[in-house]
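Worked example

This section walks through a single chain of length 351. The input is the sequence exactly as stored; nothing has been trimmed or padded.
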Amino acid sequence: MSDIKKYIEANKDRFINELIELLKIPSVSADPAYTQDVLNTAEVVKDRLEKAGCDLVEICDTPGYPIVYGEKIIDKKLPTILVYGHYDVQPADPLELWDSPAFEPVIKKTELHPEGAIFARGACDDKGQMYMHVKAMEYMTTTGNLPCNVKFMIEGEEEVGSESLGWFVKNHHEKLANDIILISDTGMIANDIPSITTGLRGLSYVEVEVTGPNRDLHSGLYGGAVANPINILTKMIASLHDENNHITVPGFYEKVEELSRAERDEMAKAPFSLENYKEALDISAVYGEEGYTTNERNSIRPTLDINGIWGGYQGKGTKTVLPSEASAKVTCRLVANQKPGKIYTLLKSHI
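Given that input, the structure is written out below as tokens.
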């Protein structure tokens, strides 16, 4: 352990500077305006894996953004670990809520980070964690302490649903063969409590657009006589949950497994303070599906949420028009046995 600490201390400034340079690249996979930045990030990841000691590193084409694959095989008889991560990030919007620009990393101390932390988009989802594994690989190859074979699979579409990941895995079984997969893109119970995540909820996404008249209309002349797309959209959204916050889409819960009382009791043993949870989020009460605890709601239960909604005049002041269209982004977090395609079909039918 002392050797590891010495290596980290000797290379700490370099590690931080390299990560900061990586964080400066706005690899926003959801926005086509950043396509070249996403591709540039893949090149940087490839370079870092090569310098960390991988004998083979490839930028692998997919139907979408490329996957960076790297490997260090020291003995085929030894176990193989596959490290998964992603180099793409979420959009930084709303920009006005950032204390510093999202892609201009800064190191600062806060109450939560008294020793200091890097603040930037992607610092902890997932460039920071991914880079940690790359640096661990560097240490082990540099010092000759690598105890097993290591493979890396770093994708560029995690933030948009990993659309190409399934295709890549299906077409590269032999390349990706391993004994265990290591993912550091999850949560922890607390900073001082080691946590191993064994499963995550999936995702189904749909964008809804409601169209009405062929142009925006004056509300004084047409109000009450023509359907307002925003009104229609909000009614649709309101219909998705009942008074107990139960999702009303027919068939939505059909494949959802109900955990036994004993299993739920085991879950409840995990350290958790509801008061601390509320305080950290600055909320007075929690919210969610009736009959389940907060930790159950955010793990073993599926959800349906509106992630964005727009339509009509968005500027300051008033503009008395009936918009011609309104839209919303809808996502469902899915649990075991629920299939994204099936949920999409059910949601579309309900809407």
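What to look for: The domain at 2-183 is CATH 3.40.630.10 (Aminopeptidase).
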